[in-house]
Fold this sequence. Notes:
The chain has 233 residues and is mostly beta strands. The chain is 13% helix and 33% strand. It is built from three helices and nine strands; from the N terminus they run H-E-E-H-E-E-E-E-E-E-E-H. The strands form two sheets. The chain has a five-stranded antiparallel beta sheet, covered by helices on one side. Strands 4-5-6-7 form a four-stranded antiparallel beta sheet, with no helix packed on it.
Amino acid sequence: xxxxxxxxxxxxxxxxxxxxxxxxxxxxxxxxxxxxxxxxxxxxxxxxxxxxxxxxxxxxxxxxxxxxxxxxxxxxxxxxxxxxxxxxxxxxxxxxxxxxxxxxxxxxxxxxxxxxxxxxxxxxxxxxxxxxxxxxxxxxxxxxxxxxxxxxxxxxxxxxxxxxxxxxxxxxxxxxxxxxxxxxxxxxxxxxxxxxxxxxxxxxxxxxxxxxxxxxxxxxxxxxxxxxxxxxx
Length: 233
């Protein structure tokens, strides 16, 4: 008597395994993006009625990073150095914050907030708040930033106590497209942002050539091919 199953039984077993495998959910790869922002003050603009004092008892602290949510990128990988340098060299603007990081994008309920906290050495302004990258049907950037003008002499350049006035807030939730430059405007300060899809190098080897960057870049390693993040057109 043979211990091996009959061909018909083996075929039936294989068919059952294939059907079971086909019924398993397909786990999509996480959507990973590089986010870069340049936040700058506008020293030539008037207040235009948008000056106000922060209500007493309201905290605008940014908290801290949670492990694994953001990976800081080295300045050699920044794409917006040309824009940042041009703003810094202009007499009408001052760069308050320039950073780039890599993160997994998620829905609005779980999206982590990247904390912004900048102390401008030798200056009289600073910025703090948060930036969230949200991935739903489309990409969004949720921006909530405060520019603060410090008071006092003797080298005091920043303070977040109740006496630090005026405070200007830039708050916006905007749908964005990856790879494009986006300008968030306010009469007293603004932000330029670029969000670029990231794919692991091994996945990018067969993805074709990388499109030319939309802004001056300072890159020391090959960039992966972008992935279409717009689910509908």
